[in-house]
Prior knowledge:
- By secondary structure, the protein is of the alpha/beta class.
- The chain has one domain (5-308): Alpha-Beta Barrel (TIM Barrel), CATH 3.20.20.
- Helix content is 49%, strand content 15%.
- The radius of gyration is 18 Å and the shape is globular.
- The mean pLDDT is 97.
- Residues 11, 14, 49, 56, 93, 161-162, 189, 270-271 line the site of 6-chloro-9H-purine.
- Residues 4-319 form the Adenosine deaminase domain.
Amino acid sequence: MRPPVAELHLHLEGTLEPAFIIETASKHGIELPWRSLEHLEAQYDFTDLQSFLDLLYVNLEVLRDEDDFAEVTRRYLVRAAAAGVRHAEIFFDVQAHTRRGIPAETVVRGIRSALDRSVADHGMTTKLIMSFWRDLPAEDAMGALTHVLGAGLPIDGIGLDSAEVGYPPSLFVEVYRMARDAGLHVVAHAGEEGPAEYVWEALDLLHVERVDHGIRSLEDPELVERLVRERVPLTVCPLSNVRLRTVETMAEHPLPRMLELGLLVSLNSDDPAYFGGYLDANFDAVVAEFGLDARAVEQLARNSIDSAFLEPDERARLH
Ligand code: ES4
Ligand code: ZN
């Protein structure tokens, strides 16, 4: 992929490759439910979002110390740089770790130690976005945010992920207010498996600056009109949508329609170790399926830069 591109929807826990999971479990003497690498690799046939989350949440338990978080981040940066990524905004699921007794300090310091080297090592700028599990009570998210802010841990924004249906954005109004008041950027997953109504809520109640996925917005023409008018970025993840059966096949993916409608869509890998590839594979898949020409590829890349939390001079460097 030639034009400079930003990756804006990437879960760090979704970058643990099977070999790394097995290695790190063995380093810490952790017993996983998988007898072997092959046994683990046989688990990647998902039927929906929840079936994937069940596997993700078991595997991420190998992350224990600061160096594990630094190492997984380093590996992502190397792979993303090879895919042409020049700016990355990375999610981590704070409660996935704190609920197992791993302090947020360990997580953030580990990740940051790798991010701090990414400009020097890869010419890649980065942001770090702390995501909350929406299927846990909002009070839990509030507690985590209060702690991280109080401890002065360096994060750039907050997000909302995990099981969507039944957990609308409206549950998290106070959490998002606190984050905005603290000067953090705010994004949320909405309209992946959940309805267009959740996208409205994310915009009107959480005041998000970007919507993660948002593909079900297309079911509501009034919503599409607003997203276009306000240039709300949507971070779309084609391989993820196919592997989680959010769309039946790549041929049915709404990306071409989203581009035609003038939505500010970017391509992203979501959980690349689980869904069949990094950002380059996502570009390759949509180019192969839809025969996108160089102009469309450039548009997608440019959209990603325009959708990023960059200062004007940083944006200009990438345009
Ligand atoms: C996730 Cl909702 C969702 N999608 C993809 N990856 C995730 N990790 C945590 N929640
Ligand atoms: Zn996601």
